[in-house]
Amino acid sequence: MEQQASQFIVATRAALSQASALVVEYAFSAVGAVLLLVAGWIIAGLVHRWAEAGLMKVRGFDLTLAAFLSNVVRYALLILVFIMVLGQFGVQTASVIAALGAAGLAIGLALQGTLQNIAAGIMLLVLRPFRVGEYIDTGSISGTIREIGLFATEMKTPDGMYRLAPNSTLWNVPITNYSREPTRRYDLVVGIGYEDDITQAEEIMMEIARAEKRVLADPEPGTFVSELGDSAVAITLRYWTMSPDFWPVSREFTKKVKIAFDEAGISIPFPQVTYSGELAAKLEPKRPVPKDDDKPTLIDA
Question: Which of 42, 43, 240, 247 is deepest in the core (most CB within 10 A)?
C-alpha cells in the first residue's frame, strides 16, 4: 500500500509539473497572441486611414473606390494577423490558409451574382463612363446618377422616381451619356405645304436661331430641306447649344417656329393622301338614294 501511495504521489507531482509547464508556456503564447492582436488591429487601422487619405489625394480618383480599396488592405492585414496568432499556439498555418482558400471559393460560387456586381462596380468606378449628376440611357434603364456603389447604382428618373440598378446591368450594355459632352446638336424638323415658300420658311427659322443667345455661333446654325414627304416638305433647322440648354431651347424653338409660320401664312399640313381614277371613285363615300316617301309632293311644294 505504501509503495502504491508513493507511486501515486510521484505521478501526481509529475503531472502537476507538466501542467504548470504547459500553463506557463501557453500563458506566454496567450499574452503574445493578445499583444499581436492589439498591435495588428492598430496597425491595420493606421494603414487603412493612410491608404484612404493617399488615394483621395489622387486627382480624379473616385471616393467610393478609395474607401473600398483601403478596406481591402485593412481586412487583408487583419487576416494575416489572425493567421500569425494561430501560429503562436502551434496551429499549422498552411492548413489554415488552405481552409480559408476553400471557404473563399465556396463563398464565391454561392455569391457569384453579387461578386459580378462588385466587379462591375469596380470597373465603373475605374473607367467612369458616367459620374454623379449625369444623365444616361442604356436602352432599358435611364436616369440621372445619384450614387455609384459597389453593388448597385442609384438613379433618379426624369419623372422623379427612384431607381436602383445592379452594376452588372450597367456594365455589359452600351451606355449613352447625355451630360458628358459640353455641347449638343439638335435638329428641329418642321413640315410645310408644297405651295408655301421654302426660302421664306428657312429665313424665319434662321432669324429665330440668330435671336437666341443660347444657340452657339460656332458651329453656325443652318437650314436645309431634309425630305419631300407625302403631304409636306420637311425643313430642318440644325443648331448647337450647351448641354444644359438643350431641352429648354428645343422646346421654345418648336413653339416659336409654329407661331412665326402662322403669322407668315405658312401652313403646317396634316398627313393626307390623294387618290385618283377608279380608286378615288371606289373610295368616295356614296350618297344615300332618296326613297319615294322622301320625294317632295305638290302640297309640300
Answer: 240
